[in-house]
Design goal:
The chain is of the alpha/beta class and 419 residues long. The protein folds into 2 domains: 297 residues, Aldolase class I (TIM Barrel, Alpha-Beta Barrel), CATH 3.20.20.70; 104 residues, no CATH class. Helix 2 packs across helix 3, helix 3 packs parallel to helix 4 and helix 7 runs parallel beside helix 8. It is globular, with a radius of gyration of 24 Å.
Length: 419
């Protein structure tokens, strides 16, 4: 083995993989069997945090950065003048096992540029996972990229060896994809998503009837959208996300701010990177949609197509819907409490449990851990102390901002100076 060449390939193909952020493994329950290597049960990867707070990592690489497509937003596009490299199947297997034995990683995230054809590329990705599972008895986490346009047969086989599959939708709108990647067809992205969804459902049904039914993509599937490469609004992005969650049972949708990489006139200018704050607001909106009972149309619509950058989306919604407040913290239903700014899911559960034993006042709520400076304007409790609620939404917004702490506060100085 030429170790210098392997090291060079690793440097090139690991760097090329950094633009893909959809690498969480939450939900996998693949357990170690037959004294094999690794255990993917409830693991997270890519230096992500698991449900119990652990931070773990993985080998995150491309199989190759050669690609037959020339997508304007992609660093590995056909016309880009960069160093090219490709791993052999056995090289990826050996790297994964050797890194795992040295405790560097707990799994593998494997993507690839598309070379020759989607099916040829997908076959090679599957071969890596198959060798790891069957020849090396590797039971650690494996995340494979679903290649747009790959056949149903290959997608079915991929899910038998991978814990999670993901096909990146890349651009949130069909018009944006046509502009920046005219060689690609939007339906090619949908086809593998549909196949994976149907296979997961089918295997779950069979497992109830047949005891030793193999697991199929136990951590489900995810996707990723590039934010800011075209002129899509936050409404466009989040409506697409809602569509994928509803129709393809996505575990996660990831949002990646576009990093300018060329002077292509179809793209934003160089040095105009998408603010991290915009990504943050999209993730917060995603969370409200998935765990807090919000319909995306409540948060974003034709009258409100962009998220507020100076306040979080729940507070923004509350200020636009003051008629729903204040809520009595000792009487309100859970679904209504979840809409109060400054009160999270864990705090709501604590409140519901605690109020069974006594009426809650401000001191109780502070001890529970609510964000008092925001929540106090939207709730009442067992106290004579009243908060000013006759303020206009705009004045209330400025007061809350002035009394809040945020890692993005420096970015908001311009807004704050207006009040």
């Amino acid at each position: 083995m030429d170790f210098d060449r392997i090291k060079e390939k690793l440097s090139i193909l690991a760097d090329a993989a950094k633009y893909d952020v959809s690498c969480s493994s939450s939900g996998s329950k693949r357990k170690n069997t037959n004294k094999g290597l690794g255990n993917a049960s409830e693991m997270g990867i890519c230096h992500s945090y698991t449900q119990d707070g652990r931070c773990v990592s993985l080998l995150k690489i491309l199989l190759t950065n050669h690609c037959i497509f020339d997508c304007a937003y992609c660093v590995t596009r056909r016309s880009n003048d960069i160093k090219r490299a490709a791993f052999k199947i056995q090289e990826v297997v050996d790297l994964t096992i050797n890194f795992y034995r040295r405790n560097y990683i707990e799994g593998l995230f494997l993507s690839s540029g598309i070379f020759k054809s989607p099916d040829h590329t997908m076959e090679r990705l599957i071969s890596v996972a198959k060798k790891l599972r069957e020849e090396e008895n590797f039971n650690g986490y494996i995340h494979l990229k679903s290649i747009p346009g790959a056949s149903d047969e290959l997608m079915r086989e991929a899910g038998l060896y991978a814990d999670r599959l993901s096909v990146n939708i890349e651009i949130p709108t069909k018009s944006g994809l046509k502009l920046l990647a005219p060689e690609k067809d939007h339906t090619d992205f949908m086809k593998p998503m549909e196949k994976v969804k149907n296979e997961i459902i089918q295997y779950k049904k069979e497992s109830k009837l047949i005891k030793h039914t193999p697991t199929y993509a136990p951590a489900g599937q995810s996707t990723q959208m590039i934010v800011g490469a075209t002129g899509e609004s936050d409404r466009d992005i989040m409506y697409s996300s809602a569509f994928f969650y509803k129709n393809y049972n996505m575990k996660r949708v990831y949002y990646s701010g576009y990093v300018p990489i060329s002077n292509d006139p179809r793209l934003p200018a160089l040095n105009s990177q998408v603010p991290m704050l915009r990504e943050n607001r999209l993730y917060q909106t995603d969370w409200l949609m998935r765990f807090y009972g919000f319909d995306i149309r409540e948060l974003l619509n034709k009258d409100f197509p962009f998220l507020d950058m100076d306040i979080d989306p729940k507070l923004s919604w509350a200020l636009r819907n003051r008629q729903h407040f204040p809520l009595d913290i000792n009487k309100a239903e859970k679904r209504h409490l979840l809409r109060v700014p400054g009160i999270g899911l864990k705090s709501v559960n604590k409140i519901i449990h605690a109020r069974k034993f006594k009426k809650l006042n401000w001191e109780h709520l502070k001890k529970i851990g609510i964000a008092y400076n925001r929540a106090k304007y939207f709730i009442t409790c067992d106290s004579r102390e009243k908060e000013l609620r006759e303020l206009s939404s705009e004045n209330l917004k400025s007061i809350i901002i002035q009394n809040s702490q945020s890692k993005f506060r420096k970015k908001l100085n311009n807004q704050l100076s207006l009040f």
